[in-house]
Request: fold
Amino acid sequence: MKIFKINIILFFILTNSLMVLGQKNPYWQEPTAAEADSLKILLQSTENDSVKMYINWQLGWFYQERNRYTAFEYFTAQLLQAKNLKQKIWEAGALNQLGYISSLSQNYPGALNYLLAAREIASDPNSSLNMWGVHLLTDDGIANSARLTILLDNINHFGVLNYFVGNFEKAIAYYQEAAELNSVIQDEVMFVLLHMNKGESYFPLGKNDLAKTELRTALDYSQSSGYDKYRGLIYWDIGKIYEKENNYREAKKYYELSVATNIESDSPDFLGEAYLALANLYIKKSSLDSGYQSAHNGLSTYMLINDSVGLMNSYSTLAAVFDARGQIDSAYYYMKKETALKSAMNREERVKEFQVLGLNEQLRLNEMETEKVLLQSRIRMYGLAAGIGVLFLISMIIYRNNIRQKKNKAIIEKSYENLKSTQAQLVQQEKLASLGQLTAGIAHEIKNPLNFVNNFSEVSLELVEEIQDIRRKTQDVNLSGEEDEILEDIKGNLKKIHEHGSRANGIVTSMLQHSRCGSGKMEPTDLNALIKEYVNLSFHGMRAGKNPIDVDIELDLDPELGNVPLIKEDFTRVIINLCNNAFDAMRGKKYEVQSTKNNDGEIDNGIYVPKLRVSTFLDNGKVRLSIEDNGPGIPDEIKDKILQPFFTTKKGTEGTGLGLSITHDIVKAHGGELSINSTSGAGSTFIITLKP
Reply:
């Protein structure tokens, strides 16, 4: 009993000291390293379950940005204790933090489950009844304030989850929802987090000025409130924007500020990010020794906290350093480690599960809505006995609730459709990348035996011709007619083998070219400039090749188009493929027209001028790219086949049938559509529709 009393006294002394030294709102309070050591000792010796619950909460916060696996264990233990003690607010707090840690660890399905469970509790005003330790989660001593703080942080964490799955607009919507609630609560720490998170979400949308404004506002709140936990991360975010703008001097300054700040605040996760950012900046500036040192520092930091995502990024950066140095073996070693870790994390499968969970949540909400409608029907029936006046009042309430539910349902359905579209694009990009790798492997394996077929058929053809020459010189033609016929048959067969082998070789070469994938990362791109460059490149390539023709090219590009999110390396292939197909079609029509004769029996060369028209425009908020030629058009009987792999109308070995198939896949990976309008004898138009 004496030991128990001593432990309780030590606990209250320690918690009071934390509150004195900490921020205004105790919710954000974290222990120092020395205090964390004391809490671990107290956790082993105390028998009070409520005290154990709070100690696990504090230790979870301490390790949250230092070692996520350890933090996850402490919050899990706290969750079990809160359930046993029937402390709903503490249970919601643990679920909320477990959801945040799962988002950082790329366990998106788990994150969604935890955050939904936390929101269900924190949204219920009755959950704060009979709450233990109110003063440990709020400074005003009101249990409902603690509930609202957790609900506020939960909305913020939903934004973080959407940020990590690439749904930046939805993330910003959550942050704005949280900001509206915080305008009432006035939590200074949450001001820091919301401005920081909004800045991070504006950056990938290409809104650099908005991003910098939000991040600098977050710095101001950080300094005024004294909450410096994420200050190093904010410096890192600003550095990334300057690096994107090619202002390497400012980028380096903020990365170095991030390193120094994170060392001072003991934030190893953000420190690792700062080291890797410096390393990549040094690689761009060809300072490879400095790049290696920074990358190695990042790897050491992430190995210390056993962070899988950080380790994967460190391996990737070290591979880039050694590749730039020309040390291929070392680059390959780190690339293999990155690939192995990426496979283990199995991110694609987790994103698919996240989509399924979103559907399950939609179904759950629909079931809840049905139950509400049934309940309202019962209320309406009971109200009939109370008189016409009460019936009218209840009917008005039901009508208002139905309108609200329809609005909420429409919002939820729209959010779900946006989520489904984002996930479909991600899956299509991963599928295209995997298909490219598989195609490259198959093509490499086929190419060697194919070379032997072509080479030996060519050599055999030459040997047959030599035999025929010798026989003509040494034998009587009348006596060797049958053998010569056989040799001619062999010669004809060898020519066919060589011709079809050459076609197969062309297909394999084309497969290898199409298997080269881009970075897989969409970036804001000047589509008009890209079209000018690659239409011109395709034209000059045609002029330098076999059977060149003159083409009248017209560019009608909308100057109001702006930047479009594209995987630049992939989309250039779309432009080149469609232009090359148009040139081939117009070349065929030109030679066909030139072969016709006028009434005088002379070839008429002046009745056909090849024309290519490329245009861009905005249509109902969508970007459209049109490539139109005045070639022979596409016959109706093959319109449904031209997007199939290996289908071609070109003669001999001229075409592989892969160009339009790959083009279609790339457009789909961008979340777009490819449509074809063609009139036989009048030309064809390929229209690409993209989201802005």
Q: What stands out?
A: The first helix runs from residue 2 to 21.
